[in-house]
């Protein structure tokens, strides 16, 4: 019998627990949900599904999607695809109050991937919009014109309420469709969606069949044509396939989903920031270099120094690969980025970090591991009131299925975890309070499976832990 199994070791360990309360040895963390989802295969919806229907009419615009087009929310970037010919590059738009139509002119691109050739991908930024205003917009020509609308955010400012939805790792299965429906039907009414990476999962198919990028664009149109989705690049956007002659990473993603990265002085679309209502949102790239001296590192250092909590009280970070994850899936993949950036997040009092990648749900306590310096042994996460809450929301429901194996016992830093598909809402009330809720797909639309009142780290840095 080895030392670990010997009675004296057990006694010693117990004594240590009592005397020193050594967290890693004896205590377990928060809640591992007792909800057990029925194990089913997640299957992609077939190509002839209703959600993939091609809009009628010659060269009709399809895959219409919008995102914020500038730093402050006075511009909207509209994108759509035409399949037969380029067609019109223009967006006609008008505000609810003035029926006078205006025109914005865009550009289109095409790309090839192995033996796939894309349609004509249009990108057009509408600028100088009024805040807090409903706009209608039209794309296409004559008999194939399609009309949509969106509402611009309120002017950036400290106490403007705003509700963000959260979805990650969506894919295009029957479960993905349930997640999207639950988001649309949520009575809290998301006004913009933060999408934490891994979009279509087209790379699951032989030759990364990019037809699945097109079907995904048609699937999500029913939401993203009407409210901006804020994009984060995940590993399924890499589409790195040298064996197919495709060795430029992110090719389909960067052609299809543009983001306003230049507005925040970024030099690449994978890391950037926007301000929307009372939130300053920083998007980071788990799959672009982030070591010291890299473009992303130097950009983030400057970006954090620009955050003005008087203007935008809420500091939110989005990235794909989580830093605090107690599932066996993708375990510690986010560790190297955590080592680089975590001290800055604590110093600048980031309120919350949302990640995807792990196909399940998890919410952390406010903890940090920044004391550790390789020689001092202080390598256990500790409660830290200036640290963000880390939320893994990679539970959109893609074809790879659920992550349901967890590290046991639940570590102290994990406040709540559950292997179910769902989405979340971050509902900012004012500069001090935001209400957060997580909704699993098996429940009614209004049901909250997990929730938390967030107290702003800058304006109201009171302990907001749900477990103590
Ligand atoms: C739309 O207009 C084009 C050109 O005028 C015509 O060829 C086509 O048949 C029309 N399509 C529909 C669905 O009306
Ligand atoms: C691409 O190549 C694959 C393998 O040869 C083939 O099955 C597929 O039909 C081709 N697709 C197109 C659009 O040519
Ligand atoms: C997807 O969800 C929508 C809305 O609930 C529904 O109308 C549609 O039939 C669903 N499609 C599939 C293929 O599940
Ligand atoms: C921060 O924002 C407030 C409100 O917009 C403004 O009055 C102040 O000058 C800004 N501070 C800095 C350092 O820019
Ligand atoms: C590591 O941390 C310890 C204690 O926090 C400190 O005394 C020591 O100087 C640090 N080592 C280095 C190389 O910074
Ligand atoms: C901020 O919102 C919270 C929650 O709705 C509320 O309790 C609080 O009174 C608000 N603060 C102010 C200053 O209005
Ligand atoms: Fe991922």
From TrEMBL:
What is this protein called in UniProt? Purple acid phosphatase
Q: Which residues cross the membrane?
A: none
Sorted alphabetically, which InterPro entries does this protein's record hold? Answer: Calcineurin-like_PHP, Metallo-depent_PP-like, MPP_PAP, PAPs-like, PAPs_C, PAPs_N, Purple_acid_Pase-like_N
Named from the GO MF annotations, one term is: transition metal ion binding
Q: Which cofactor does it need?
A: Zn(2+); Fe cation
EC supergroup of this enzyme: hydrolase
* Domain Purple acid phosphatase C-terminal: start-end pairs: 387-446
* Domain Calcineurin-like phosphoesterase: residue ranges: 163-361
This enzyme catalyses: a phosphate monoester + H2O = an alcohol + phosphate
Give the enzyme's EC designation.
Answer: 3.1.3.2
Q: Per the record's keyword annotation, is Iron included, yes or no? A: yes
The family line of this record is: Belongs to the metallophosphoesterase superfamily. Purple acid phosphatase family.
Superkingdom as given in the UniProt entry = Eukaryota
Signal sequence region = 1-24
The UniProt entry, under CDD domains, shows: MPP_PAPs
Which residues does the UniProt record annotate as the domain Purple acid phosphatase N-terminal? 61-152
**What are the top taxonomic ranks of the organism?**
Eukaryota, Viridiplantae, Streptophyta, Embryophyta, Tracheophyta
This protein's UniProt keywords: Glycoprotein, Hydrolase, Iron, Metal-binding, Signal, Zinc
């Amino acid at each position: 019998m080895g030392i670990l199994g010997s009675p004296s070791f057990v006694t010693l360990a117990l004594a240590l627990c009592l005397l020193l309360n050594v967290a890693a040895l004896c205590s377990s963390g928060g809640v591992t949900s007792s909800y057990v989802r029925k194990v089913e295969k997640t299957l992609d919806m077939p190509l002839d599904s209703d959600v993939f229907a091609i809009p009628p009419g010659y060269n009709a615009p399809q895959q219409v999607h919008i995102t914020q087009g500038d730093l402050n929310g006075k511009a909207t970037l509209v994108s759509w695809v035409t399949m037969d010919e380029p067609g019109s590059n223009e967006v006609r738009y008008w505000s609810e109050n003035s029926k006078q139509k205006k025109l914005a002119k865009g550009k289109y691109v095409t790309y090839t991937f192995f033996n796939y050739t894309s349609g004509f991908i249009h990108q057009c930024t509408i600028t100088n919009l009024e805040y807090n205003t409903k706009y209608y917009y039209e794309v296409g020509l004559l008999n194939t014109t399609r009309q949509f609308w969106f509402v611009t955010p309120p002017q950036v400012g400290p106490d403007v309420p705003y509700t963000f939805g959260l979805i990650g790792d969506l894919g295009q299965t029957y479960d993905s469709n349930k997640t999207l429906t639950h988001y649309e039907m949520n009575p809290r009414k998301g006004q913009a969606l933060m999408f934490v990476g891994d979009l279509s999962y087209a790379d699951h198919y032989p030759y990364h069949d990019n037809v699945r990028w097109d079907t995904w664009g048609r699937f999500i149109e029913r939401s993203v044509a009407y409210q901006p989705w804020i994009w984060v690049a995940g590993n399924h956007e890499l589409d790195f396939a040298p064996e197919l002659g495709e060795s430029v990473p992110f090719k389909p993603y960067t052609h299809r989903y543009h983001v306003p990265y230049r507005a925040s002085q970024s030099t690449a679309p994978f890391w950037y920031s926007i301000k929307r209502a009372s939130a300053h949102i920083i998007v980071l790239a788990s799959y672009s270099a982030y070591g010291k001296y890299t473009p992303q590192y130097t950009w983030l250092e400057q970006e954090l120094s620009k955050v003005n909590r008087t203007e935008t009280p809420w500091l939110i970070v989005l990235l794909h690969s989580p830093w605090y994850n107690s599932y066996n899936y993708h375990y510690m993949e986010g560790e190297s980025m955590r080592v680089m950036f975590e001290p800055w997040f604590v110093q600048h009092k980031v309120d919350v970090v949302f990640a995807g990648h792990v196909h399940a749900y998890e919410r952390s306590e406010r903890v940090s591991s920044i004391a550790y310096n390789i020689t001092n042994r202080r390598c256990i996460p500790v409660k830290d009131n200036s640290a963000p809450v880390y939320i893994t929301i990679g539970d959109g429901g893609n074809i790879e299925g659920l992550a349901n194996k967890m590290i046991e016992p639940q570590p102290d830093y994990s406040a709540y975890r559950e292997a179910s598909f769902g989405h979340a809402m971050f509902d900012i009330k004012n500069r001090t309070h935001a209400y957060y809720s997580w909704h699993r797909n098996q429940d009614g639309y209004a049901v909250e499976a997990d929730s938390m009142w967030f107290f702003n780290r800058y304006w109201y840095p009171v302990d907001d832990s749900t477990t103590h």
